[in-house]
Amino acid sequence: QVHLVESGGGLVQAGGSLRLSCAASGSIFSINVMGWYRQAPGKQRELVASITSGGSTNNLDSVKGRFTISRDNAKNTVYLQMNSLQPEDTAVYYCNYIGPGYIYWGQGTQVTVSS
To answer: Which of 24, 28, 39, 58 has its CA 20 to 30 A from that of 71?
Structure first.
């Protein structure tokens, strides 16, 4: 079992920044992938960014150059630094953890960007 705790969401004006954090605890496997997804009202959940335990990253095209994913393996924590936020970034952001044969999700944190 892996437990994920997210923090850092909130309300910000367009052009502003937020930093999301997701701390994992429990049965952490050393080789894993952690990532951030988001889901806006009426839309499907989409991958925003992911990072492997080795540091390889994958990002949604629309956030490249604005969002940066990073992780601290010693703390089992993944971060999402979001800059130049736009109203279309408004969504619930979910952290996930992928281990060998299983996936866990966080409870989600709301990010709202006002114009």
So the answer is: 39
Query: Per-residue pLDDT averaged across 37-56, rounded?
Result: 96
Phi/psi-derived region of residue 55, left when phi > 0, alpha when psi is between -120 and 50, beta in every other case: left
Please tell me the distance from the alpha carbon of residue 8 to that of residue 111, in angstroms, as a whole number.
Answer: 9
State pLDDT tens for residues 75-115: 999 999 999 999 999 999 999 999 988 999 999 999 999 99
pLDDT at position 29:
85
Q: Give Cβ neighbours of residue 99 (< 8 Å, ≥ 6 apart).
A: 2, 27, 28, 29, 31, 32
Backbone torsions φ then ψ of 45, nearest 5 degrees: -70, 135
Assess contact for 9 and 111: CB atoms under 8 A: yes
Q: What is the mean pLDDT of residues 35-51?
A: 97
The contacts of residue 113 (CB under 8 Å, 6+ apart) are 11, 12, 13, 14, 16, 85, 86, 87, 88, 89, 90
How many angstroms separate the CA atoms of 78 and 97, rounded? 10
